[in-house]
Design brief:
The chain has 180 residues and is mainly beta. It is built from 1 helix and 8 strands; from the N terminus they run H-E-E-E-E-E-E-E-E. Strands 1-2-3-4-5-6-7-8 form an 8-stranded antiparallel barrel. Strand 4 and strand 5 form a beta hairpin. The termini are far apart.
Length: 180
């Protein structure tokens, strides 16, 4: 029994530095963001049949989590909330976005880390009070973007993103934009 305990203790002591090194190389991050959601005139998030019964462009805020897969690649998950209104009438048209994407850092050793993102998600419109015939709506979104981040310290950084979201439109597809 003593040999077994000794073997486990030696194994744990040998594995701990490797696990600590792996944790340093694969950090997780959590952050908040704010920005603006610029919806295309062709966007159908709301009532596709009536152009005025869709959500309008609006400020947004959200939460982002990420996990470094490698030196260049990071998996990111985001939830955003846009404080939108319907284009007509000024009634609230809340837009919730959920997405997952890959972030590829093009300059990982630089003080300013330039990156590209590519992913998928969904845009959901929900409203308690809405114009006639307009129902809550969910649309798929294909997402691509460019940005830059500056690590200020081990626990804080500054980041700017520009995103293109390809979503269903009233006629074909629509191209919405986001700036964080």
């Amino acid at each position: 029994m003593c040999r077994f305990v000794a073997a486990v203790a030696v194994s744990a002591a040998a594995v701990y530095p490797a696990l600590a090194e792996a944790a340093e190389k694969k950090p997780m991050e959590i952050g908040l963001f704010g920005g603006y959601n610029l919806l295309s005139a062709n966007s159908e998030l709301g009532d596709a049949a009536v152009a005025d019964y869709v959500a309008d462009s609006a400020p947004l805020f959200g939460l982002r989590g990420s996990y470094d897969v490698g030196r260049w690649l990071t998996a990111e998950f985001e939830a955003k909330y846009a404080l939108a209104k319907f284009r007509t009438g000024g009634l609230p048209a809340n837009v919730l976005g959920m997405r997952a994407h890959a972030r590829v850092t093009l300059t990982p050793q630089s003080a300013v880390q330039v990156f590209a993102t590519l992913g998928l998600g969904g845009e959901m419109l929900f409203a308690d009070k809405r114009p006639a015939l307009t129902e809550n709506d969910v649309d798929a979104a294909y997402i691509a973007g460019l940005g830059a981040r500056i690590p200020v310290s081990d626990w804080f950084g500054v980041r700017a993103d520009g995103r293109l979201l390809v979503v269903p439109g009233r006629e074909g597809m629509a191209a919405n934009q986001e700036f964080h």
